[in-house]
């Protein structure tokens, strides 16, 4: 028994070569199979629900109009529960059992980073994960990203703030994980170019609820500009603490805090905060007519307000469809990737910047814009800045 | 002045931990079992208050009262259905049971429509108001937590030392069979204890909502309350408060003066240090088996 | 009714008590060795994960099931093994040496954790291990030069020089070989004097000490062996997932491991395997069952947590000996038919505090 096992091991070991081929699966006469790995039962469940709504909305639109070159799109959803081993199993199921053509919009940076290896080995193209990391588009293999990583957001924030007022006392309060480290790396690189430094840096552990010592340190250092690498809850917590001790600098957050839930949760204390973002929050009575119509259509369909993630889900599906249409009826993985690498998606009603992909650039756009929360609504104060 | 402000913030933070630890220690003192679902009961109390205000439209204080009563009843129900069948079994059994209970409660809460999977604010009427004493600033929310912790600690202490019920609980924790023979209704007392502990947890949840916001994972703060109870000695109520305060102050000061990262592990380093020096905590009693 | 007539001491400590067992285990071995022939890639992946978690379960079972020391921070050792393996393989070490390194470092850290364990008992030990688990997670996140911090670390495929084990079949065979080796080692340990010392300590420390068992030495040994085995599992886990990050080794992973040993059956080697199968296949079963449930429940986000919690509670309340215990009861019923009595497996209840202090 043991010998047999060893012989198998040796044979397979020698026969095992790096698997970098194209899968060329998931496309039949009538259907294109697209997979997505979402968090249906974990901490990001609410975001995944919105994302799926957005994706399904676009999907149903295109299927009602006859599909992509005559093929209808079917979306297969797998649950990761925000657990890496379940995500990995889900990725294998999608690529090997269900035989999808492409995976799109996977939720969560860690999940996307873990599963992209599986999809790479299975020859399935990985499209537009909902996560921010440079590893999601570098090196430029079978993956394409749209979400601007925190490194570029940091650079963009510094650039936009320097443009309005050059003389500032800079401080930061960031989460002690890759969100914070990437953000500060970007901030530092832009600051170095401008010949400035961050005076006081503080961090907090993910899911912390007490910011009294950090905010006290920032106040003690006399900062007038504070960069926040925080998510929803921590932003409100920090703002509450700052109000309590009478500390009122200019707060600038990232896309992690750019959500319509922020004014809902924090109320008046969130008024006036700035945030960088790449996708734009839609409102019922703001923006272009096309954006307002989209908002109304979403409300009618799902009976709730669309947030950032609904917008991203819709856009992800939209770009995938456009690229598939451009590739034509002969839809293979290789041709799809070639099409993507020569594509440019113009600014659309959802407020994204122009997304351009080339052979070496697999991220659509690294530009961000900054908005300010005025009267409980996010209002853009800059156009897209290239970091 | 900065130092004092940090100490004050630390005391307020520590009272949060102490409030949750009081619930643990209460159950441990009376039944010698540990309740790992204390954080989830806390979360349940906060959600109950939120639901009453949001869906039933009750005013804040009425909602708080009804939520407390509800949670106390829930605690007694849990004891009757889940803990009583395993009476007499090893400690580890009940620990695993409460861990399972925590999972179930978390899962059920996420199924509640609208508020289940979101973060919501549960603002008391005194939100945002602050006391300014000299150069120190203390918010009303922090003050309420400190006051309630002290009151609750004294109340429980009196209960255990001076009332018949309390002495009965202590007897039951030492020898359930003998207590039963002496006419002490052991099972009913257990139910009462779990109800009280759940009530304490619910109160903690309602008071904490301004700091942590109401969401399904807010109970994780309960994991910091374990070190608090251990530092104080698991069978001692004042010990739980002292332990909580110790952790709160150490966290606050290390967050201000030490480099990043120390604030987060301060509680755990402290508990390990305490276990090396005094394995039974500050006020705990060492128990030996006579052979 | 089946009788087991033993005429030799060797029969008493033999691994297979009846000839029939040898046949069944032989069939299992053949089925597992030939798995890639009859199962698809998805099932190979699942079985590999089951094997990895079984090894981790064996480690925790040795500590919690056989020595009676509860540990709520065991995922830390999984993490130590995973990161050590990722680091050493990244530096180009051949994988057998890296595996030894991962297991060895884990065992060394297990000794460090075991030292305070000598002074504390029961719930205090559980809290101490919980604290250790949190500190370990923080170290993984902070020590960026070695662990890559919160951004995580990519893990290269196991290799000896130029020969790489990249395919999932080769990783499966590696896990299978390692799992079989570890199981045989653990079984051997348990039927020797060390294993008996562990069991004695679980049943009553005072009595064990009176019989001459050096408590400190055996407790430290239990911790280090358990940590070493879990470290090996962690190394394989790193290769399987190809990406490690600190949040994978937090408290929820520790509770998953505890769930594994309790549902599998505390105090049995089979329990580790049954628990691993339960842990890995339950989510799939829930997804399959979703089609038969009403939409409101099936789409609910918390369904999996509820099912896991309910199953754990159910086992603790009604079947404390776990899946393996249930199997033993069924088997005993048929072995002793018609002489089986319900009271054969009655649990011991202790109502006195002094009885609970062992």
Explain what the structure shows.
- The complex is a heterotrimer of chains A (387), B (291) and C (358).
- Chain A is built from twelve helices and 14 strands.
- Chain A is globular, with a radius of gyration of 22 Å.
- By secondary structure, chain A is an alpha/beta fold.
- The termini of chain A are far apart.
- The model of chain B has no long low-confidence stretch (mean pLDDT 87).
- Chain B is mainly alpha-helical.
- Chain B has one domain.
- Chain B contains eleven helices and two strands; from the N terminus they run ααααββααααααα.
- Chain C has 358 residues and is an all-alpha fold.
- Chain C contains 18 helices and four strands.
- In chain C, helix 4 runs antiparallel to helix 12, helix 9 runs antiparallel to helix 12 and helix 10 crosses helix 12.
- In chain C, 48% of the residues are buried.
Structural shape of chain A: globular
- Provide the CATH architecture of the largest domain in chain A: 3-Layer(aba) Sandwich
First-to-last CA distance of chain A:
60 Å
The name CATH uses for the topology of the largest domain in chain A is Rossmann fold
Q: Whole-number radius of gyration of chain A?
A: 22 Å
Cα(first) to Cα(last) distance of chain C is: 37 Å
Order of helices and strands of chain A: HEHEHEHEEHEHEHEHEHEHHHEEEE
Number of DSSP helical runs of chain A: 12
Number of strands of chain A: 14
Beta-strand fraction estimate of chain A: 15-25%
**CATH class of the largest domain in chain A, anyone?**
Alpha Beta
Overall domain count of chain C = 1
| Succession of helices and strands of chain C | HHHHHHHHEEEHHHHEHHHHHH
Oligomer: heterotrimer
Return residue spans of chain C where pLDDT drops below 50 for at least 5 consecutive residues.
none
Helix/strand/pairing category of chain A: alpha/beta
Helicity range of chain C: over 70%
The general outline of chain C is: globular
Number of domains of chain A: 2
Q: Biggest protein-protein interface?
A: B-C, 62 and 52 residues
């Amino acid at each position: 028994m043991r010998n047999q096992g060893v012989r198998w091991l040796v044979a397979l070991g020698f026969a095992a070569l790096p698997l970098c081929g194209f899968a060329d699966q998931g496309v039949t006469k009538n259907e294109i199979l697209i997979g997505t790995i979402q968090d249906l039962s974990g901490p990001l469940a609410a975001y995944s629900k919105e994302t799926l709504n957005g994706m399904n909305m676009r999907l149903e639109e295109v299927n009602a109009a006859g599909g992509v070159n005559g093929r209808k799109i079917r979306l297969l959803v797998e649950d990761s529960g925000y657990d890496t081993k379940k995500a990995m199993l889900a990725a294998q199921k999608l690529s090997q059992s269900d035989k999808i053509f492409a995976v799109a919009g996977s939720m969560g940076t860690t999940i996307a980073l873990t599963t992209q290896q599986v999809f790479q080995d299975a020859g399935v193209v990985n499209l537009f994960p909902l996560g921010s990391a440079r590893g999601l588009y570098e090196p430029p293999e079978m993956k394409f990203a749209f979400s601007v990583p925190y490194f570029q957001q940091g650079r963009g924030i510094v650039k936009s703030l320097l443009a309005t007022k050059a003389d500032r006392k800079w401080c930061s309060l960031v989460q002690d994980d890759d969100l914070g480290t990437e953000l500060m790396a970007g901030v530092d690189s832009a600051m170095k170019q401008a010949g400035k430094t961050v005076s006081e840096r503080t961090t907090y552990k993910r899911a912390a609820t007490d910011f009294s010592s950090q905010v006290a340190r920032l106040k003690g250092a006399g900062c007038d500009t504070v960069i926040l690498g925080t998510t929803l809850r921590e932003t409100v917590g920090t703002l509450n603490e700052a109000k309590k001790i009478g500390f009122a600098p200019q707060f600038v957050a990232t896309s992690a805090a750019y959500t319509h839930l922020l004014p809902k949760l924090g109320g008046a204390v969130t008024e006036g905060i700035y945030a960088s973002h790449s996708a734009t929050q839609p409102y019922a009575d703001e923006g272009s007519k096309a954006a307002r119509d989209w908002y109304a259509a979403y409300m009618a369909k799902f009976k709730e307000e669309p947030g950032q993630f609904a917008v991203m889900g819709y856009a992800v599906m939209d770009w995938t469809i456009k690229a598939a249409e451009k590739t034509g009826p002969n839809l293979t993985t290789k041709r799809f990737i070639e099409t993507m690498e020569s594509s440019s998606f113009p600014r659309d009603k959802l407020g994204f910047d122009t997304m351009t992909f080339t052979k070496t650039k697999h991220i659509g756009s690294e530009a961000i814009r900054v908005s300010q929360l005025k009267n409980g609504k996010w209002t853009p104060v800059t156009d897209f800045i290239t970091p | 002045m900065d130092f004092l402000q940090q100490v004050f913030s630390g005391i307020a933070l520590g009272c949060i931990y102490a409030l949750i630890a009081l619930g643990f220690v209460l159950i441990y003192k009376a039944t010698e079992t540990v309740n790992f679902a204390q954080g989830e009961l806390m979360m349940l109390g906060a959600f109950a208050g939120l639901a009453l205000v949001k869906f039933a439209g009750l005013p804040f204080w009425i909602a708080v009262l009804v939520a407390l009563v509800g949670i106390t009843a829930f605690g007694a129900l849990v004891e009757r259905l889940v803990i009583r069948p395993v009476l007499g079994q090893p400690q580890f059994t009940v620990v695993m049971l409460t861990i399972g209970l925590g999972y179930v409660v978390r899962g059920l809460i996420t199924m509640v429509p609208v508020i289940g999977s979101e973060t919501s604010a549960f603002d008391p009427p005194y939100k945002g108001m602050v006391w300014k004493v000299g150069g120190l600033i203390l918010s009303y929310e922090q003050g309420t937590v400190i006051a309630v912790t002290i009151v609750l600690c004294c109340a429980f202490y009196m209960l255990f030392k001076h009332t018949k019920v309390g002495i009965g609980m202590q007897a039951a924790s030492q020898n359930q069979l003998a207590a039963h023979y002496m006419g002490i209704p052991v099972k009913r007392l257990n139910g009462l204890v779990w109800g009280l502990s759940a009530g304490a947890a619910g109160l903690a949840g309602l008071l904490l909502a301004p700091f942590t916001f109401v969401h399904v994972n807010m109970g994780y703060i309960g994991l910091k309350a374990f070190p608090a109870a251990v530092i104080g000695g698991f069978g001692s109520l004042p010990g739980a408060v002292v332990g909580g305060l110790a952790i709160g102050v150490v966290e606050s000061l290390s967050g201000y003066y030490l480099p990043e990262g120390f604030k987060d592990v301060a509680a755990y380093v402290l508990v390990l240090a305490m276990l090396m020096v005094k394995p039974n905590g500050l006020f705990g009693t060492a128990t030996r088996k006579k052979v | 009714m089946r009788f087991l007539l033993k005429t030799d001491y060797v029969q008493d400590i033999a691994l297979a008590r009846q000839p029939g067992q040898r046949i069944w285990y032989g069939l299992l071995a053949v089925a597992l060795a030939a798995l890639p022939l009859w199962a698809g890639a998805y099932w190979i992946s699942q079985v590999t994960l089951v094997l990895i978690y079984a090894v981790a379960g064996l480690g925790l079972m040795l500590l919690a099931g056989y020595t009676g020391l509860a540990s709520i921070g065991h995922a830390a050792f999984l993490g130590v093994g995973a990161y050590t393996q990722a680091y050493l393989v990244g530096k180009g070490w051949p994988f057998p040496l890296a595996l030894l390194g991962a297991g060895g470092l884990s065992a060394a850290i297990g000794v460090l954790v075991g030292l305070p364990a000598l002074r504390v008992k029961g719930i205090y030990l559980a809290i101490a291990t919980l604290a250790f688990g949190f500190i370990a997670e923080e170290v993984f996140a902070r020590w960026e030069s070695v662990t890559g911090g919160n951004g995580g670390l990519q893990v290269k495929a196991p290799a000896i020089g130029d020969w790489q084990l990249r395919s999932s079949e080769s990783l499966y065979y590696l896990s299978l070989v390692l799992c079989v080796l570890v199981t045989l080692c653990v079984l051997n340990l348990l039927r020797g004097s060390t294993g008996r010392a562990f069991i004695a300590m679980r049943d009553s420390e005072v009595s064990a000490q009176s019989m001459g068992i050096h408590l400190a030495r055996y407790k430290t040994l239990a911790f280090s062996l358990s940590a070493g085995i879990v470290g090996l599992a962690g190394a394989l886990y790193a290769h399987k997932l190809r990406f490690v990050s600190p949040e994978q080794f937090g408290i929820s992973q520790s509770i998953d491991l505890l769930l594994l040993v309790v549902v599998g059956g505390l105090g049995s080697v089979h329990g580790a395997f049954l628990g691993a199968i339960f842990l890995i296949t339950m989510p799939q079963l829930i997804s399959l069952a979703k089609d038969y449930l009403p939409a409101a429940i099936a789409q609910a986000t918390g369904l999996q947590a509820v099912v896991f919690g309910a199953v754990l509670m159910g086992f603790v309340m009604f079947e404390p000996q776990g899946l393996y215990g249930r199997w033993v009861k069924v088997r005993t019923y048929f072995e002793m038919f018609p002489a089986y009595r319900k009271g054969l497996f009655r649990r011991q209840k202790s109502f006195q505090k002094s009885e609970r202090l062992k």
